[in-house]
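Annex B. Sample input.
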Amino acid sequence: MLSDPRVFFAAERTLLAWVRTGLTIMGFGFVVARFGLFLRMLAASQGVADAAPLHTSVSSVVGIALVLIGTGCMILGALQHRSYTSTLPPADIPRSHDPRYPILLSIFLAALGLGLALYLAL
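Annex B, continued. Sample output.
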């Protein structure tokens, strides 16, 4: 049977799409979480006491949830990639590529996402 490295590279592109999606969701979550802080600063600059405490807490909760969802996307993508590449015959995995590196990247970025969620929560 002839080896076809395109199958492996397609799986890597799929994993990187999951990572890209997770990073985008995490970034949007950070912006949403900080939007409440922006509203509070805007109210303070206009002389209003604390007009938007509810907006601040809601945006923080939604933002943290989005960061955690983005983190979950990356973890699920890494798990799917690992389970799929483990079914490939060794001839389909190019010798110059180690399938562990993209998974390690995903896990590292997911750990950063968990750290970001913790930072936003505190």
